[in-house]
Amino acid sequence: MESLFAIAIGILTAAAVYMFLARDLPRVLIGFIMLGTAVNMLILAAGRIGSIVPALVAGNESALTAAAANPLPQALILTAIVIGFGLAAFALMLIVKSQRILGTVMPEEMQEAEGDVAPQALPAPAPARRKDAA
Amino acid sequence: MTHLLALPLLMGIVASLAGTRLPPRHAPLLGAAVAAACFAAYGFLGLGMADGVAVEAAFWSVPALGIGGGLRLDGLGLVFALLISGIGFFIFLYAHRYLEGDKRLTRLSVMLTLFMTAMLGAVTADDVIVLFIFWEMTSLTSFFLVGYDHEKPGARQAALQALLVTAGGGLVLLAGLLMLTVATGTSSLSAIIAMRDIVLTDPTATAAMLLIIVGCFTKSAQIPFHFWLPNAMAAPTPVSAYLHSATMVKLGIYLLARMNPLYQDEALWQSILTWFGLGTAALGALLALRETDLKRILAYTTLTALGTLTLLIGAAPTLTLTAAMAFLVAHALYKAAMFMIAGIVDHETGTRDARALGGLRKAMPATAIATVLAALSMAGLPPFIGFLGKELIYESLLEAGPAALLLIAGMLFVNGVNVAVAGLMAIRLFFGGQRPTPARPHDPPAGMLAGPWTLAALGLAGGLLSGAVGLWIVGPSAGAILGAPVTADLYLWHGFNLVLGLSGLTLATGGALYLGWPRIQPWLAGIAAIDRFGANAGYEKGLAGIIRLSEVSTALIQHGDLRGYLRTLFLVTAAGLLLTLLLRDGFALPGFDSGTVDIRALAFLGIAGGALATVFARTLFGAVVCSGLVGFATALAFLFFGAPDVAFTQFAVETLLVAILAFALVKMPIRRADDRTARDRVKDGGIAIASGVAVTALLLAVLATPFDSRLSDWFGNASLTDAFGRNVVNVILVDFRALDTLGEITVLAIAAFAVLALLRPMLQETRKS
């Protein structure tokens, strides 16, 4: 069972990395989200799987029974899912913004946009040159 | 008494600070006053230093860093300190008139004061760290002094070259000195030299020695670092006269001399110093004959002097060290004078081209007399101190054993060239018919003549009072180099002997070279190969090579291509994982037991299938939908394996994500296919598969190890009893790891604000339209 899970996680990782390496940012984002999912699965599997019983202390007992699932990875994953979601939402907004302002979601095309911005950062040209430009 | 040792340094630093406030007319006078005061202080210390006992004082020690911070003045340091402060005094007077009216004179004199202070600190430092700091301070100030005319590209290049060579050499020197410090456990120079046996038996002994030699060679412009010195002539003349004749270039010689007691019996030390010294001297002499610019001619003869000094230190017996110190003093006196004279000629006639000058004695009589006096010392004629130095060189080299013949032949040529250059300066410039010059020549003001006159007169006095020079100056300093007392009985007349014959031969060689100069110079200057294959060309190529290397490495490492970075990142991660597993023998292949597999494995199928479908989806929209499938399959897996809370979170997040993605994608080219080239697909696929395999292998390796449940058990046991909650996962999040959760909420809030800030302009636009 666990071996099968390991293989599935491997396939998910491979797919995530492949998407991550795409040329357009939306696919990169999908890869990013999938990679996060793959790591969550990795944590779950490393904490051992098998039990279907939730990690709840039964009403007549004072401690978790051995039959229950491992609670620790679950707590870690819960945090990771929420943080990953926040990060993905923020990255998505950046992509949307770049589409609106730069007109592209391809990082390779964004280098030109950088070139347009750069001259403003330079000190003001000498008066003589300004005259030439006029 | 001992505190007097720090006084010059203190005065120098205070004067450097105060000097910045002075107008250009007055700044050099402050420098001159400080130099005179330093000279007096060292003179007073020297008088009290009977029988060669060194004066020592400890200052600013930093025990935590192992820095002793001591100063120490012995015979060797005293000679240098007196030369530095004494010549410095005249340089300030000279600069005062030479650069009269120049607004930057304040800066020049502050830099010169700082330089002088650094030099004085370097020759009196007894701590390797203090020595290094002052050593590099001379390099730094020389950078600013050489680059004084910073509007000229030539001056900037020369300044940079001098800095790169000498400061770079300083770092090499530091490495060598630190090795000595580590070997002996002390940073005090005198203590290191006293622990000679420990130093020489240390495994790093040879390396440390070579590093120190390289450091000294860069500073003193020995082959193959000689090229920076002639180029540094881009500096104004007061700077050249000070730094490049009498002081800074001698700092390397100083340290070689200082280290000599440590290494003088080492064959490697002797042979490196002897042969590199001879090579430098001979090359300097040859190149001096090529030049027509007075300052460059003098710069190359300075190379000959530096080479000669290195040679003499390398050839260890007592007499060579006496010769070295006598020659050092003689050279400092006449060469500083000569440089100042070259500057005067340049200043008053408007040119320093040796071919265009002649017959200046009528127009500049006072300069002519100083020149003749300095030239006679330079040519090594009696009764000048230069004669003393030259005779001693020959006399000591005659004892040098089998190599003597070659060394003496080399010295004959070198000294011959010096005679010729002395003739050029004195006879060609000042006698014969007067040639027309850009400006009408006349004698300069007294401030500029004071230096050449005094130094040239001292050259004469030193020769006449040879006994006193030997007793007071040469003896104690040579003793410091040898590490044992030396009595230097100097006298002018040795009788008719071989040495006198060699002197005669030198004069004859020099005379012939002088007479032949109008023909030798153009012929040598015409040999282009010297320029093409010289060390300077090597430096240029090296510099260009460094720039090219950095361009290539930048293009390789920092290419600006996002995918390139990511590829590297993933490849390194995958390779790191797989290699670690391989090296630690961590690969595990668990036996497959079909009995444990149940229906829940369908969730795995959903995950893997969704992942593959995402990759192969043709459009972006398809990819989003398929990735959603992965998310929901994950949620199912959580549900199947006892994690309902996580599953619900995953469902919620996945739904939200797909919704937001779909919303955002409306504005994007969603039909767009993944447009990677076939080659890129193969590359990326390879990296992806490697990553997948690495993760699977890692997980299998983890699963093959026995499970350590202590932490989980503790949470399971403590949940109800300590935190009063039955849902262990929730208890962990809100109780045991409550601070983490608070941080998580904060992160989420920040992300929400950021998203809002990005969204707001867009929302406003939409509202307007």
Automatic annotation (TrEMBL), chain A:
Q: Where are the transmembrane segments?
A: 6-22, 29-55, 75-96
Q: Name one GO cellular component term.
A: plasma membrane
A UniProt-annotated Pfam family: Oxidored_q2
Q: Region labeled Disordered — which residues?
A: 113-134
Q: What is its main location?
A: membrane
**Is Membrane one of the keywords?**
yes
| Superkingdom of source | Bacteria
Q: Where in the cell is it found?
A: Cell membrane
Question: Which InterPro entries does this one have?
Answer: CPA3_antiporter_subunitC (IPR050601), NUOK/Mnh_C1-like (IPR039428)
| Bilayer topology term | Multi-pass membrane protein
Q: What UniProt keywords are attached to this protein's entry?
A: Cell membrane, Membrane, Transmembrane, Transmembrane helix
Gene3D superfamilies of this UniProt entry? 1.10.287.3510
Give the family, as the similarity comment puts it: Belongs to the CPA3 antiporters (TC 2.A.63) subunit C family.
Protein's name according to its UniProt entry: Cation:proton antiporter
| Organism expressing this protein natively | Oceanibaculum pacificum
Automatic annotation (TrEMBL), chain B:
Show the stretches that span the lipid bilayer.
28-45, 75-93, 105-123, 129-148, 160-185, 205-229, 241-257, 269-290, 297-317, 323-345, 366-385, 405-431, 452-475, 495-517, 564-583, 595-613, 620-641, 647-666, 687-707, 745-763
Subcellular location as annotated: Cell membrane; Membrane
Is Transmembrane helix found in the keyword set? Answer: yes
Annotated GO CC locations: plasma membrane
Q: Where is the NADH:quinone oxidoreductase/Mrp antiporter transmembrane domain?
A: 125-409
Question: What InterPro entries does the record point to?
Answer: CPA3_Na-H_Antiporter_A, MrpA_C/MbhD, MrpA_C/MbhE, ND/Mrp_TM, Proton_antipo_N
Among the GO biological process terms of this entry, one is: monoatomic ion transport
As for membrane topology, the entry says: Multi-pass membrane protein
Residues forming the MrpA C-terminal/MbhD domain are 606-669
Q: Which residues form the MrpA C-terminal/MbhE domain?
A: 681-760
Print the keywords alphabetically. Answer: Antiport, Cell membrane, Ion transport, Membrane, Transmembrane, Transmembrane helix, Transport
Single GO MF descriptor: antiporter activity
NADH-Ubiquinone oxidoreductase (complex I) chain 5 N-terminal domain: residues covered: 65-107
Q: What is this protein called?
A: Cation:proton antiporter
Q: What is the lineage of its organism?
A: Bacteria, Pseudomonadati, Pseudomonadota, Alphaproteobacteria, Rhodospirillales
